[in-house]
Amino acid sequence: MKAFTSFLLLTFGVLACTAKYYHEPNAPKLHITLYYEALCPYCMAFVTNQLSPSMVLKDRLHYTNLTLVPYGNAKLDDKGELTCQHGEDECELNAWHACILEHNDINISLKLIACMMRGRKNNLDKCAKRYHIDVTAVKDCKSSRSVDNILKKYGEATAEVDFSGVPAIAVDDEYNADDQEDLMAIFDHTFCAKYKAKFNITLNNC
Ligand SMILES: *[C@@H]1O[C@H](CO)[C@@H](O)[C@H](O)[C@H]1NC(C)=O
Ligand SMILES: *[C@@H]1O[C@H](CO)[C@@H](O)[C@H](O)[C@H]1NC(C)=O
Ligand SMILES: *[C@@H]1O[C@H](CO)[C@@H](O)[C@H](O)[C@H]1NC(C)=O
């Protein structure tokens, strides 16, 4: 009886693992772009409570071309200096995120960035240790360049989109103000609906 129970547990364990890691080969990817800044409370809540659980735990990342744009309401002032909505700390953190994105693929980047956004200070070392990620290149990026230089391309990407506040999400390369409330409040559900609408495919656990 005990052996049989172990057998059942093992079987279900294996099935559960297989289910977790099974991917439709060549599944189409829905483009999602998140415009955000490191220290806005709604951005922190969205990334940690909505985006990361959907992408990582529910495995939507495999079905997504996800782009993170860590710039938000940062602006170049009259003197050409970068100022961020939540001060210099935020410019620094945005630049750390940018260096993470530059030197890791999106799944690793998202894990690190979500981990960092659970706190308000730079937790890169703690987060890298937790996920066993080598961040040497990230640190070289941040120490060898100015924040303005690191964030330049994100400033340009942000300038192209007319959103009113962050976080802001573009789906299929389009920002639609009417979608924002659902994307913020029930991201995974909304992602599933958009995916179905575009590709006529219902993803697992939707
Ligand atoms: C990250 O995602 C890519 C594309 O989905 C995949 O090929 C790669 O194996 C993933 N890497 C890790 C470490 O999970
Ligand atoms: C991912 O999306 C970005 C922006 O929407 C695009 O420039 C890039 O080519 C896409 N990558 C793939 C592999 O589709
Ligand atoms: C969507 O997929 C279903 C089931 O695969 C199919 O029956 C239906 O014709 C498809 N609809 C469109 C608009 O392609």
Automatic annotation (TrEMBL):
Gene3D superfamilies: Glutaredoxin. Pfam families: GILT. The keyword Signal applies. Keywords: Glycoprotein, Signal. One of its GO terms (molecular function) is oxidoreductase activity, acting on a sulfur group of donors, disulfide as acceptor. The keyword Transport does not apply. Residues 1-19 form the signal peptide. Belongs to the GILT family. This is GILT-like protein 2. The gene is LOC111594453.
